Amino acid sequence: MAVIGELIKKAIDVYGFVTSEPDPAKAQREVLQNLLTKARLTAFGKKHNFTELLRSDDIVAAFQQEVPVHDYDKLHTDWWHYLLEGHQNVTWPGGQRYFALNSGTTSTSKAIPVTDDMIDAIRKSGIQQVMSLKNFDLPSDFFQKQILMLGSSINLIEKDDHEEGEISGISAANIPAWFRGYYKPGIEIASLTDWDEKVHQIAKEAPTWDIGSLSGIPSWIEMMLKEVVRYNRLSTIHDIWPNLHVYTSGGVAFEPYRKSLETLLARPLTYIDTYLTSEGYLATQKRPDTSSMALIVDNGIFFEFVPFVDENMDDEGRVKPDATVLSLEQAEENVDYVLLISTVSGTWRYMIGDTVMLTDKQRAEIKITGRTKHFLNVVGEQLSVHQMNKAMQTMQKRFDVEIKEFVVSAIRKDGEHINKWYIGANKEVDGAEMAAALDSELCDNNKNYKVARSKSLKGVEAEVIPVEKFYRWSEEFKKLGGQAKIPRVMKEEDFLGFEQYIQSLPYS
């Protein structure tokens, strides 16, 4: 279709032109060269001889040999704590205006630097995502409609020399002036820190908006839509937003939420996955005939891939110092990899914690398959979150139930290990029947799990509970709304604490 919407026109005006898709391998080498060039005089660049690396015949191999792999704890301990103390030119030129706070699916809070160059890169990646909408079958006036971005508060925490908040709040606080007429819920509502009040205000203002697309984590988008429908006494959200056509998902896999979300719609939406993290905007779905996302290979992020096998990982889920590490050019399709990134925020060979699979190398398209620490392998199960999500989709069909959240752990019972599941659903299901069906499904689709069930994994149990209990736990122990996520895998100690809290709640 013709790209005639005002939003696309203004995006093209700001950035000058629409580029063709780059060659991924060539673009990645150029990104790495630019990263090393810009950071060569920082403390990190001097420590790791960036100036010398730039003279290498094979800049990628030289970089991998000289710079160690980092996780958050290592980067923070060795380098980033200086930024929080006000030092400059540590891992990236200049000082820091922002830190993204992220507890993700763990209990440990992280403060991740967000440089001005990263804010600019996120904007450009956002424009790439908007421009790719021309590939989807959308009405010609779609691009003139408003975009509701449900994220964290843009009312950031002020420190002596910087501000802190979640990445969605930092990004929203820095949206271009030309975009603000399209952006909802608007600055005032987006500044609210109380989740319930924010959703209430959105519900009140909803009749005055003409929303064309939604953006946010699925569970919180669904909760918001339910409140808009309830408050305004609607049958579906399309009664009030008839031009709503697109939902841009991110943060977690969307498929487990599709069935329940569509009960709030008069018609299905165009669903587009994105991969925006506290460390950067990594990938976005650019075409309608796939659910995979294209890595943004030409915009300030260099990607590396570690085969997700036991010999490359330690007991804490970290990449070992001697692990095999591949560039995008070397990586293969349909293999689970731990993703490493180096970015314009001064992250260097940084283990973001996600596992991904290349589904189309020529297009640099990926799927997120899980988390390195949310990979269940206590007694040889070798279950990825990707496999768990697929199994839950099968359970939804088999039991005619909506499953929105779940968590699993390997726990000891009577001296033996079992897998215990809590599954958040919209109606009662017999736990024993669910456990048996889930066990059979996983055995059929994961040979390692099947072997474990014949040896060290002595049983499987499941309890199906109202999904609201998951959100009560999240509100009590983590936070509600914004970027908060429910973990899929817990260590035994954390799981038993979760279980104790869940069992203390009334059933409904």
From TrEMBL:
MF GO annotations: acid-amino acid ligase activity
Occurrences of domain GH3 middle (ranges): 295-361
Domain of life: Bacteria
InterPro entries hit by this protein: GH3, GH3_C, GH3_M
Domain GH3 C-terminal: 387-493
Cellular component terms (Gene Ontology): cytoplasm
A Pfam family per the record: GH3_M
PANTHER family: GH3 DOMAIN-CONTAINING PROTEIN
Designated name of the protein: GH3 auxin-responsive promoter
